[in-house]
Amino acid sequence: MATEPDANPEPRIPLSKERVLRAAISLADEGGIEALTMRKLAQELGVEAMSLYYHVDNKDDILDGIVDTVVSEIDLPSKKTDWKTAIRQSAISAHDVLLRHPWACRLMLSHTRVLLGRLRYMDSLLAALREGGFSPEMTHHAYHALDSHIMGFTLWEASFTFAAEDLPKLGATFLQELPTGEYPYLVEHVEQHLKESSQEEEGEFEFGLDLILDGLERILATT
């Protein structure tokens, strides 16, 4: 006996560039940027691969789009607070966003095209510095110091090939393999890594960020 068609089928969500990019981000988050292929993306969306080309030009167009989408998730420096607080909050947001999408940092650094989201982010950071009282020359140096810390630290952190819960075992093995008594300060350093930090303690990213911001604040006070 033939089954009757569903009288109220769920409406199919139409394909759009935004849906394509969100699906691409999901694939990259799960398997890395290498997992993102046109074939897998079409499968994820339940369409034929050729259907994607109605919404994106090619894979490079997708890569541009997903980078710009991720950058657009970053909180821009607020104009409602002082420059130091505003930049600190934005930098921490950038770090958090890029860690959620660990493929994005490397892709941003390798891309030559700078799209709307990145332009908006860059200009807002420069604006926070200039409107905070820094000269064009000091803004130039401050921007690069901040960007280097955000991108460099996040790239280093995203490159870890082990999970945080594996660190105690890895650290203990490393200490066992060190020649006894030859590297006392390295042993001390590794032991610091293995200590449990309290929830009140800020992380290494914030520590380095505050060093930069405190230094910039001292420079601004003397100009």
Brief sketch in words of this structure:
With 223 residues, the protein is mostly helical. The protein has 11 helices and no strands. The protein has helices spanning 17-31, 38-45, 49-52, 59-71, 83-100, 104-110, 116-131, 136-158, 167-177, 184-194, 204-221.
Description:
The structure is a single chain. With 223 residues, the chain is an all-alpha fold. It folds into 2 domains: 17-56, Arc Repressor Mutant, subunit A (Orthogonal Bundle), CATH 1.10.10; 73-221, Tetracycline Repressor, domain 2 (Orthogonal Bundle). 65% of the residues lie in helices and 0% in strands. It has helices at 17-31, 38-45, 49-52, 59-71, 83-100, 104-110, 116-131, 136-158, 167-177, 184-194, 204-221. The longest helix has 23 residues, at 136-158. The chain starts with 16 loop residues before the first helix and ends with a helix. The mean pLDDT is 88.
Class derived from helix and strand content: mainly alpha
Task: Please report which band the strand proportion falls in: under 5%, 5-15%, 15-25%, 25-35%, 35-45% or over 45%.
Answer: under 5%
> Helical percent range?
55-70%
Describe the biggest sheet? none
Overall structural domain count:
2
The CA-CA distance between the termini, in Å, is 87 Å
CATH superfamily of the largest domain: Tetracycline Repressor, domain 2
Question: What do the pLDDT scores average to?
Answer: 88
Strand runs, count:
0
Shape annotation: flat
Number of helices: 11
Secondary-structure element pattern, one letter each: HHHHHHHHHHH
| CATH-level-2 architecture of the largest domain | Orthogonal Bundle
**Whole-angstrom Rg:** 23 Å
CATH class of the largest domain: Mainly Alpha
Looking at CATH, which topology of the largest domain would you report? Tetracycline Repressor, domain 2
> Low-confidence parts, pLDDT < 50 over ≥5 residues?
none
